[in-house]
Amino acid sequence: MTTTTPEGTGALAWFRALSGKGRRAFVGAFLGFGLDSYDYWVLPLGLTAIAATFGLDSAETGWLSTATLACSAVGGVVAGVLADRLGRVRTLMITVLTYALFTALCGLAPNYETLLVLRALQGLGFGGEWATGAILVAEYVSARDRGRASAVIQSSWAVGWGAAVIVYTVLFRVADQDVAWRLLFLTGALPALLVFFLRRGIEDAPAFTEHRAKARDSLRAIFRPDLLHTTVFASLLATGCQGGYYTLATWLPNFLAKSRGLSVVGTGGYLAFLITGAFLGYLTGGFFTDRLGRKRSIQIFAVLSAVLLILYTQLPTSAGDYVMYLGFPLGFCSSAIFSGFGAYLAELYPGHARGAGPAFTYNFGRGVGAFFQAAVGYLALHYGVGGAMALGALAYALAFVSLFWLPETRGHELR
């Protein structure tokens, strides 16, 4: 933790209290996660066009998302170990270059099999970025404000999502879909420019350097008796939250196109409500995690997300306008659940395992949760995309239950 000015008051008091290095670290993490989001979303947005280009069914398209998220689990674990050994900033640069390179290469894929491999490799960088950036910022911010700082970092996901939707809408209006989805992937190379910013003036926090000597064995440390319980239930928590979220994220554009019969422009309108809600959910969710506590906040939003997901996908087509407006609270709740996630996972682990612990648990959840996407693809063959997406509600139930075996960490200082 590093602060250099009085706490002050106001919504941005926590940011003003950061040192210059802390502020630059925050900006780097914010941009990194926002661009990470952009490179993730080009797949769900282009999924219908990709399926048409290569003649894929719903099960095959589901595996594209599953490959990304499953490999992100591997990438996240590797990045966590590297973050404890090489440092947070160096690892952040490696992850950004990885996801930018392979996202762009996906736009050149000549067939489904190549695209599947390239998207899996993109997942390696995608998986490592979040945990690395979240830990970097958490170690600079005070315990009192860590939930809000983490929430602002999370809000960059909605910014990247919105940018991807805008580019998607423009490209699919000016080019044939067989070309448009490829151009969409090629724009994913732009995040590589962020590395030049990360190399200038961003350093790891003192909280990391103090524990660096003991971090050589960080991956083994999270499976030792004193931390194994935390690792198991934090992994289940992450599985539930991400299984529910990525069910929504991966299949929603497909659901709107096939089950609601919407055009590209019509889909953009529905997504606008969802993304606006998501952005506000990320921002305000941090307030709840700092006031109500990490556990209670996540449990409340897990219940609300499950109920709203079922309503959004099961209401009849005749309720089209109501469903569109329902996207706002759905986006809000399914995003607010992650607002304090970075802070919570960082607080669960001691300094010498703070890279490996959050990276492993978050990305284990992402990897296992990825199979919800494949399951939705198979179930959609029999029950339709909307019916199959209700599976996400079960994932949120898992997140709710797992928290009964984890401690509350609000106010915990990172030493």
| Assembly annotation | single chain
Largest sheet, if any?
A: none
Tally of structural domains: 1
Determine the number of helices (DSSP H or I, runs of at least 4 residues).
17
| Mean of residue pLDDT values | 85
Structural class estimated from helices and strands: mainly alpha
Report the portion of residues in β strands.
Answer: under 5%
Under CATH, the topology can be stated as Growth Hormone, Chain: A
Please write the CATH class name: Mainly Alpha
> Looking at the structure, what is the overall shape?
globular
CATH superfamily: MFS general substrate transporter like domains
Distance between the termini: 7 Å
Low-confidence runs = 1-7
- Helical residue percent band: over 70%
Radius of gyration: 20 Å
Beta strands, count: 0
Annotated CATH architecture: Up-down Bundle
Q: Order of SSEs, N→C? A: HHHHHHHHHHHHHHHHH
Report on this structure:
- This protein is mainly alpha-helical.
- It has a single domain (16-203, 211-401), classed as Up-down Bundle (Growth Hormone, Chain: A), CATH 1.20.1250.20.
- Helices cover 77% and strands 0% of the residues.
- The protein contains 17 helices and no strands.
- It has helices spanning 13-16, 20-54, 58-85, 88-106, 112-138, 146-174, 177-186, 194-198, 206-209, 218-221, 225-258, 264-291, 294-314, 320-336, 341-348, 356-389, 392-402.
- 60% of the residues are buried.
